[in-house]
Structure of Amidohydrolase family protein:
Amino acid sequence: MMELATPDAGQTAGSIPADGRRSVRRVAIPCIDADTIFDVTVEEGLFASIQPAGERADSAGPGGLADVPTLWPAYTECHAHFALPPNFDDSLDDPAIMAMQYLYHGVAHVVDMFGFPLVKAAWERSAAQATLPYPEVVHCGYAVTAMCGYDGKIGHGSEFPAPVFMLGGKHDLDVILEGNRHLGATFLKVMFTNGVEQPGGSPRFSRISPEMLAALAQVASARGISCVLDCNTRDEVMLAHHFGFRYFAHAVRDEVLSDADWQQLSGSCFVSTLSGLRPMVLRREEFLDEYGRPGFSDTQDTRNLDFVAGIDEPFGIKRNCQESRTRAVETMRQNSLAALERGMLLTGTDAGNSGCFHGYSLLGELRLLSARPDAANLPLQTVATVAGRQFFDRMAGHASPAHPLRVGAAATFNLFSRHGHAAGGLPDATLIRGIPVDRQQVVKTIQALRASPTQGKITL
Ligand SMILES: [Zn+2]
């Protein structure tokens, strides 16, 4: 772990002086200015100063820029479900473990896209007892979806083990928004997809009517509630955009969007979520490779490794969607990269879906989005940190979020020992609200919970 210097000699990263002061000297902060190095001081958990300390070019030794440590805001996970089980045996890890899974990977902010109220009490109880600082969570309560249709199809979301609100008529809108507000929600998740993955595919779900979606847009806007739309197809996204919606929980998966499409969708953001879809199509070797990076065994239930080692063929073959889902993932990837180029991407995983793990899979998502997984990718890293954090703040109800790295803001950041760190690399050190995260303590906490009578699992 990289040490964070404190003003007093002899202090280590793990100990905080009484006034909470510490400093990080001569670091690159590419999301502020890629050509400058900075000195940063932290007091009482906040950035006290972020001062230029020279030119990057001047500070490079014989090793070049590679030797300059780099500071980024901590990662934000823009699409997760705390109350859904990522484990292949459908077990749900204790929220106390999920908090550690995020800390380990340098993730300090998580947007929960429905279900959090189910684990909220357990999360708050363990946070109150924890010695490590917990990530911050913003959530939408329960999602809104269509009624079961007269053709027997359910609204998307009803198939998950978490409640959703079914929208029968306009009179339900106030009830739903009031119910979610009572649950602590600060935005609304709208399931607006009939489940089509390919052009010409047949619908899997019933869908909210356009008239109802228009009414929902009006009521949410009147209340100042941001909505995140769950859409699969280009047509669904276009229709939702027409009604004024701008935040989309996934990238479009049925068509590669054209330049004209992107122009029409200006002002929108799409969460990538490749990691949530891929486990359906991976083969045994691909699974073992995916879960073979540093951090999996330290943070996740390793019985998942035994499970995937025993897979004969991808789930998609058994469920007759291997080809269509493989195409959908590739299309989402292309649309995500196009969104990245246009400043319209957010990075998130859909963790809580089978095989998509809290914390771990977010770094995997960045690798999937990087042209060269072992190289630095400044635009992508900026999206995963700065844009993600601003999205989090918007979903928390702030109309115009500020840059997370500024004097007076909470000192929440990751340090990487080399400038050339890979996209999706593990940080060398993490500070959350001025408090260093001791990764060894994180691992011990997880191990202790897994060794307890509950094996670190909860049932809802
Ligand atoms: Zn989701």
Observations:
- The radius of gyration is 22 Å.
- The longest helix spans residues 322-341.
- Residues 6-16 have pLDDT under 50 and may be disordered.
